[in-house]
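Archive transcription. Copying these from loose printouts into the bound notebook so they stop getting lost. Printout 1 of 2:
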Amino acid sequence: MSAQDVVTVAVAVLVPVVTAATGILSLVLQDRRQRRSRRGRRRLAYEDASRQVSFAAEWWAAQQSLPAAPETLSAGQSQAQAWLDQASERVNEAGRQDADDEPQVTFARLLLLYGMQSRQAKIVRLGFYAGLVAMACWSLVLISEVSAHGSRDAVTGETVTMLLIAVALLLLRFWAVSADAATDHVHGGG
């Protein structure tokens, strides 16, 4: 086997590996973005609750400074307590969201082997699987061509085809995930 053949076989093996590594990197970056978004929502919930508590305290102090009947003060106290309870619930809800398990980069997530809600996402996932099969077949064809015939004529075309399939796989994966996430948001899942 010549040096060119070794390079060709290496490309045939490395394109799927690099595609998988890119998929894993995209999952890691997606999880990081979601954590930052969750932290931002939690910070806003705490700030809103803090403002609500401050308002309730100031409002209650103003109510007490006005001359009023005991029934009016009792109603005011109930209202202030309701606002404090709402603020407390807002903080508790933000804490519950943090208690959810962090998603892990898994083989199932990488290959979209989990239940999807959207019909569009399921169809795109089928295209993703077809692309995976095509990439595996193209890799085998390229390796067998080089090892059996030492043919370099089709190697460049095969390599370019594999690279295009790899890019298409990444795009299909992103499309399937975003279509499923859009369905989750529409149905209140996230």
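Printout 2 of 2:
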Amino acid sequence: MAANGKHSSDDNYLKEIRKDAKKRLYEYVAPKWAEDLRGKPKLKIDLFQKRTPILKWFLPQIPSDFEIYIKRDDLTGGAISGHKVRRLEFHLAEALATNCDTLIGYGCITSNNCRTLAVSGKELGFDVHLSLYKTLRLKKPSLSFIGNYYINMILGAHLYLSPESTESSSQKKQTELKQRLSVAGYSPYIVCSGQPGDVGLFGYIDCFEELITQGVTEKFSDLVLSCGSGLTAAGFIIGNYRNGGKLRLHAYSINRSEAELKKLISDLLKDVNFLPEDFSDERMSSLINIEEESSLSDYCVFTADHVEFVSETAKRTGILLDPNYTGKSAYHMVKKLQTAPETFQGKKILFYNTGSVISLMTETFCRAITGNGIMD
């Protein structure tokens, strides 16, 4: 779209790309254990290589009687690195099938989700608009020194930076963008995130089916994941429960309280008719253990201990953790193993690495790793 809101000469070119992308759509068949869920999507499109590996992870300072393994969803692909692409396979299939030409997303300025949306959307011939809000805690953050933001710029996504540092302000801008683009003659599609009706939930239904084929439900006692919107946790709860409940699930909150996360997850599960409406948030503990001590005030806030842990893990194991997500949850998982090992059901634990290495390339973390700007 041109800067004046009118159609540009690129539109026909993008239309041809979308036309070709439609040939990649196929009918979605849910796992048998998820066939009865409400809101099941009709179509899907493949955007990454499936069956990311599961490897033994020699994390330092782990009690000798525990074994830790890691599911490498940081290997879903170069620029789309991370697990967010799993949900986009359903969103972008829906956008193509309904003849949309523009994608709208929102998130914080360092958002992995927005960057993955921009990469995948451009590949399929969509114009991409991103409503972003600033979360950096440094006095003079340089916008060009933020990995995900810079990649969005390279891709030519239209970026709108909210003057308010809140998620709600970015969501409001997203709605305004849809109205403006519709008036200009475009067909926009809003990619929601972790809200009731989000077809992206089935990305994590499929992920759990992938885990089953990799023997996870038989080989492991516990599964640990980072938790922001609750979408991944909801998908894994359904998969685990309907396949015998053999795993003990542990969700490490990134920026929400235990009560907030329980409510988010509960709403998602009720939306697909997995839980009855009278299922209380308090009963969520029977389905998943939520650890909120890993939660800080925002994604881009981490302590000196977090920075040291991410750095030491990289040096010792070659695994680069996302400092905003998996770096925090892995750090607190290790602390829990050291101080309260009884929290875990057994001794063989799988850590789901959802994050992207691109989040390491932000001014916040780079200053922290060099000893300038660490948040205590």
